[in-house]
Amino acid sequence: MICADGEYRRLVWCGGKHFSLLRPEQPPATPGPRQILLKVRAVGICGTDIHILDEKVPLARPPRVLGHEIAGDVCLVGEGVVRVQPGDRVTVDSVVGCGACPFCRRGSRQFCTSGCELGMTADGGCQDYLVVPEENVYPVGPCISYEEAAILDMEVWGALRKCGIHAGDRVLVLGHGSAGMVACQLVRAMGAARVILCGRSRGRLAAAERLGLADRYVDIEEADVPAIAREESGGCGVEVVVDCAGTARSTRDAFEAVVPGGRVLLYGVYTEPLQKFDLNRVVLKDLSVFGALSDRTGWEEVIGLVASGSLRLKPLITHSFPLEAAPAAYELMARRADGVIKAVLML
After folding, report:
1. Could you tell me how far CA 288 lies from the centroid of its own chain?
2. How far is CA 192 from CA 47, 162, 189, 220, in A?
């Protein structure tokens, strides 16, 4: 059911911490060929959104409808759509490619020079209706809530799959935000023998421990992280380090904690360049280093992991807000207040 004219909402970021809730008089757009009209039901808020509000993401410029973690219902389908039909519940890949360039043809639309990302360089999910390409939606079953479907994403899975987790690996995860908590669960599902989660918030570490996400929990304000890694590995260092924090310290700790010949996955996005880094840490330790911007594949696998219970997302969703309260939700996430791990907007 599509709402009548003037009865739907668009939350527009106007710059800084300022938003405007609009109620357009015109009806929602009609989907074109191979497009679908989505009734948005839930939008996740992540650290990237906070960086956008702090104007640390140059590509994201106001005015813009934010929201790149999106789930909803298919309302209408355009000509040629075969993968979904009206009424289907779907999660959305926010990275849109042209479909024709060499990057898109190889499955790497994240590098498409003609593409966009919803909620960043194109209007995203903080509106009642959104037109997206058919190839960007993935059906989810009724056992997965809209909130879970919104924050369900293949990016951590894709990055870890590229890095590789082998049976018996000891894995150190730096950063205890939602990405770090997802990484802990996925590396276990991929065969890791031991998982160590590091962070500076005792509250988040305690929450992760209550969920049983790791084998050891390390407060970086009180511990030497590389020393912990050596302690866990007989003095050698761990086989894999996953850096979800994206700070100067986490980078230093990652390359010191990993065993010679090991793998380092840099998942966290840096808000500013590192002032100094000795590349001999990579060269002389014969390390393999991976970035996080993986090909946009693996959605079905992640949906399956959530449906089976191997990846638990619901316990990470600590707060939900209506669209009208979005500024308060962004502020909560920015301050990391009230024990928040993940906040979701419900539409």
Report:
1. 23
2. 26, 15, 7, 22
- What is the dihedral sign for C-alpha 42, 47, 52, 54? positive
CATH topology of domain 10-154+296-346: Quinone Oxidoreductase; Chain A, domain 1 (3.90.180)
Catalytic residues: 48, 51
pTM given for the model: 0.93
**9's tokens:** 């909402």
Give CA–CA dist 39/18, Å, rounded: 25
Quick check: helix, strand or coil at residue 176?
coil
Which of 68, 69, 72 is CA-nearest to residue 90?
72
**Beta carbons of 267 and 179 less than 8 angstroms apart:** yes
Residues facing residue 266 across a β-bridge: 243
- For the chain, the domains span 10-154+296-346, 155-290
In tens, the pLDDT along 135-187 reads: 999 999 999 999 999 999 899 999 999 999 999 999 999 999 999 999 999 99
Does CATH place domain 155-290 in 3.10.450.10? no
CA-to-CA distance for 107 and 113, rounded, in angstroms? 14
